[in-house]
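Task card 7
Instruction: Convert sequence to structure tokens.
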Amino acid sequence: MRFQSKQIAGVYHFVGRQYSNDESKFIVLNTCGEIIKIAFALLIVALLSHGCAHTRNDGSSLSDEAVKDELIALDKALLEATVRKDRLSLERIYSDRFILIDDSAGEIIHKKQNIDEICSPEFKLKVLRGENYNVTIYNNAAYMTHDAYVESGEGEDKYVGQAKAAHYFVKTDGQWKLVFTFDSDQ
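Output:
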């Protein structure tokens, strides 16, 4: 048995069955089946590429919400480490390029200077907590804002305040690090 072909829109479409005798078997798929296969392949590629956009270095998938939760937990760990004056935790969370801009004096404070100030005997915080978090993720970078509530000192030296905090995190070697902070008293 021979096969027939006809040209549609410049493409040959073969209509036929199997070859007989010495010829190998030939099964022709119809155009509709080919289109469905291509559409299915494109769908798989789209789904895989979306999954790769949120893949950790170890290959496990992580959604934006999970990354946001991870960053909020890191910020809360930072706040707790600040109250406890935990130098090791602060050094782990801050990037080596960390800077803080002090809104009261416009001063730029680097990692070592900031950690030294937090760990000094004069620095006394009772409460430091964050609320109303907003996190935006940009691949291996993230921008975070939140309200910060502070309580320090006692008696005449007691201070209770609220600030707006803005942080910029970068993921380096699989770890999120705080690179930039700006706090503004309200």
